[in-house]
Amino acid sequence: MKSLEELKRIKEKKLRDLKFRDTNKRGEIIVAMGTCGIAAGAKETLEAIIKELDERNINDFAVVQSGCMGLCEVEPTVKVIIDEKQPIIYGHVDPLNAHRIIEQHIVNGKVVEDLVVKRGDI
Q1: What are the chain's domains?
Q2: What is the 3 state secondary structure string of the chain?
Q3: What's the predicted TM-score (pTM) here?
């Protein structure tokens, strides 16, 4: 029997795989929505990301919610995956920092170094 965490990981991977089958998507923005993330403001962060992408008419990114990434001390956390590049995980992503990530990383291709907590997958 699989644990709840194992099932969540399987679900997240399958959802990512399905979204990447859409050839119109250049990348993915994943917002951790575990209990600690929500308590730290992840809902507001998610809303800010969606609003920013919408205002800029950026529709080649999938925005996905995930469970806890295991980085509770730096929540809210956001993972950005662009094409085949190494994923970047950002921490302490409030709505203002979400704007910075969209502006600098998504639009201009420059990692927001002061928010990076991990490079690569967890």
Answers
A1: 4-119 (3.40.30.10)
A2: CCCHHHHHHHHHHHHHHHHHCCCCCCEEEEEECCHHHHHHCHHHHHHHHHHHHHHCCCCCEEEEEECCCCCHHHCCCEEEEECCCCCEEECCCCHHHHHHHHHHHHHCCCCCHHHEEEECCC
A3: 0.79
